[in-house]
Amino acid sequence: MAKTPGRSDLPAAPNPASPQDIRNVVLVGPGGAGKTALFEALVATRVPGQRTGTTEHVRTTTLTAASFESGAVTLNLFDTPGYPDFVGDLRAGLRAADAAVFVISGADDVDRPVSLLWRECAAVGMPRAVVVTHLDQPRADFAATVEMCRRTFGDARATHWPTLSDGEVTGVVGLLTGETSEEHEDARSALIESVIEESEDATLLDRYLEGETIDTESLLTDLRAAIAQGTFFPIVPVAPLTGAGIEELLGMVERAFPDPTVHPLPTVTSPAGGTISGVACDPDQPLVAEVVRTTTDPYVGRLSLVRVFSGTLRVDETVHVSGHLGDFVGHDVAGHPAHDDDERVGPLASPFVDGHRPRGTAIAGDLALVSKLTRAETSDTLSSPERPAVVAPWLLPEPQLPVAIRAATKSDEDKLAGALQRIVAEDVTVRLDHSAETEQVVLWTMGQAHVDDLIAQLSDRYGVTVTAEPYRTALRETFVRKCSVQGRHVKQSGGHGQYAVCSIEIEPLPRGAGFEFVDKVVGGAVPRQFIPSVEKGARLQLEKGLLTGHPVVDVRVTLTDGKAHSVDSSDVAFQTAAALALKEAANESTMALLEPIDRVDITIADEYLGAVMSDLRGRRGQVLGTEPADEMGPEGGWTVVHAEVPQSELSRYPIDLRSVSHGTGSFVREPVRHDLLPADKVRDLLKA
């Protein structure tokens, strides 16, 4: 978002008079398809003096927004990352927008992740269009791409056709409005038939089949209505670097894409979960807005990108800030504690790529950058203090790739906690864990590119240098056979000495049973006041571990006998004796290591099912069963694999699953138990 405090060469911020004058459009698609080049070309066409890029090969990792006037409307345009690791910024762009432009390469196939994203947009009724780029590449074929889009997306038709000269796209021809030739006739006829099928005029199809010529203006009216309703999806060829197709796409956005009053609003409730009625895209209604992204600007400090759904956001007004992300995901989210606060709105600005322009208000349907909104984090709701509200946040996949980080120096260590707190508050796809058992700071992320970006942010934005280290799983120790031992703690060094002897039996318990302590002392061999001391000493030593320093679980300790001294016995002495007894019993023949096992549910396209099952076997996984993935749609073709896999084998699984499934697989997991670590793994660990 904004990176400078402002630019004098930019025109004034747009000031739409009503929601009907606004268009919110997001560019989505795979990495390398040319979204950023298209974004720059669209902006440069409407903003005098704004230069376009010189290459299409730019990898975007963050959401970029630009608000500018386009014809008679204000266009809020979003460029999103195509790489799956940055899904948080993609979802933020989708939440802020009312229509999506899918940018695909005419030289490549439409991959599964893009088709899944298309279905997600369809599920929420978001109108869509398709832009085809890279038509100057040797393997590009626009006609073949159109057919591929029809197979993948449904009722998608080319509304324009590219004109090529020496392999370069020099222009586009409108199939309804341009001077078409014989080579366009089939595509033109197919487009007209699709538009007529979408028309609300039931007699139009019969008239067309009887040979009547339908006037172009009627066809355009029906075409624009179908696009706005999300029932027809235009395909437009565009060459961002030469500008071919840019005006045609902008004209479609201005005249055919829906305004914010058409797009359904997200679910809105009270902070307690009660129903709130009457929320509408109307500047005169009570305020309901959402923070879709948060960043820290080096010049102006904290910046919140806010989408206004209802009412009007004004500078210096007090708003209610509600954050209840944990209620929607089912668990507490680090950096996003539940809160309800009142806060005064800071300066507002209109975003523009690498700058921003001050403004006084933002009406329903619009978006704005808000400075210094200190109590609001990403996904929080801003509302009227008289009617506090909570917008149901967009749900994201859980981060599944762990990376352990360590501060490079003492100075870095002092700054690391604050920097991590800001990062997890801004990026809802990051989870932070402080593992007391492994003594590691762990970031849970979406993938390796996400990891690299977070480490770069720590360095560039906060001046903190960290190094990544192998992620360690939290093991457990346990006894595998019954044994009897004695612990003696006898010391005499002048004055009161220390004397305690305890005989104990140790035996394994079933998995998950925990710790049991049994007192079988007879005859007062151990005075009653010291029996709790034996239990306490045993518990403390088991928590510290015996073989490798990992906690000991699933064991019963029975105190059978002991000795005490009338003067030298004490609570501490019997604690120490119990610990010594356990240490005496611990060796490789009596003990084993346990590793954590996770239940894993993998959703995968059927064509990659065999590869995923084979990969699970290589991870010592146990497949529990499979079932159709009903949540992926009634057409089938997807399977959920249920398995149990050692946690240590999943540390790189998000990366490996993406490779095995060609980017289509996803998974969730939860810990279920600890199981015996194989002997070869134990030997390797003991050697280390």
UniProtKB/TrEMBL annotation:
Keywords on record: GTP-binding, Nucleotide-binding
Pfam families: EFG_C (PF00679), EFG_III (PF14492), EFG_IV (PF03764), GTP_EFTU (PF00009)
Chain segments carrying region Disordered: 1-22
Translation elongation factor EFG/EF2 domain ranges (all copies): 472-590
InterPro entries: EFG_II (IPR041095), EFG_III/V (IPR035647), EFG_IV (IPR047872), EFG_V (IPR035649), EFG_V-like (IPR000640), P-loop_NTPase (IPR027417), Ribosomal_Su5_D2-typ_SF (IPR020568), Ribsml_uS5_D2-typ_fold_subgr (IPR014721)
Residue ranges constituting the Elongation factor EFG domain according to the UniProt record: 592-685
Database matches in NCBIfam families: PRK12740.1-1, small_GTP
Full protein name: Elongation factor G-like protein EF-G2
Lineage: Bacteria, Bacillati, Actinomycetota, Actinomycetes, Micrococcales
